[in-house]
Amino acid sequence: MKKKNGFTLIELLAVIVILSIIISMSTFGVMRIRNNSLKKLLDTKINELEASAILYGQENQSSLGGACTVDGVESTFCKVITVKELIDSDYYKSNEVNSSNKKDLINNVTNKSMLCDEIQIYKKNNRVYAKALNIKSNDVNYVCDKSY
């Protein structure tokens, strides 16, 4: 009787199928983890922008003059400000730059510029608050005004 050397074709195919299943499952897991971390990073940026907007509102309370509704409650001291205005007025520091080598802030989920995104600053009970009002950069089809 001959001694068996190596693997049969069926055994090799079975190993390849099992390895491909393991690789595809791990790839989807890694992609899910990556997407979750990008969303958390974006949430952190939005929280930092809101904190910067609060500081802007505290130092520029005289500019809070319009009326607005925040979470169903009317406020008489409001202002909507863009991310670009916060960066240009040095209330938010960004090390990111765009293709024109100008200051920018990039949405990590969509890779779009956040300069056109809006934050609402309002005053309630003698305290200044800020809320990310319109995060346009979350829309993958949105293009921020290129004049920035």
Helix/strand layout:
Blueprint: H1 9-59, E1 66-70, E2 73-82, H2 83-88, E3 118-124, E4 127-134
Antiparallel strand pairs: 1-2, 2-3, 3-4
Describe this structure in words.
The protein is of the alpha+beta class. It has helices at 9-59, 83-88; strands spanning 66-70, 73-82, 118-124, 127-134. A hairpin with a 2-residue loop joins β1 and β2 (73-82).
Main attributes?
single chain, 148 residues, four-stranded antiparallel sheet
Summarize the structure.
Helix content is 39%, strand content 20%. With 148 residues, the protein is α+β, with helices and mostly antiparallel strands. It is elongated, with a radius of gyration of 25 Å.
Shape: elongated
Mean pLDDT: 88
Question: How does the helix and strand content classify structurally?
Answer: alpha+beta
Give the low-pLDDT segments. Answer: none
Q: Going across the biggest sheet, name each strand in turn.
A: 1-2-3-4
**Range of strand content:** 15-25%
Write down how many β-strands occur, each being a DSSP E stretch of 2 or more residues: 4
The percent of residues in helical segments reads: 25-40%
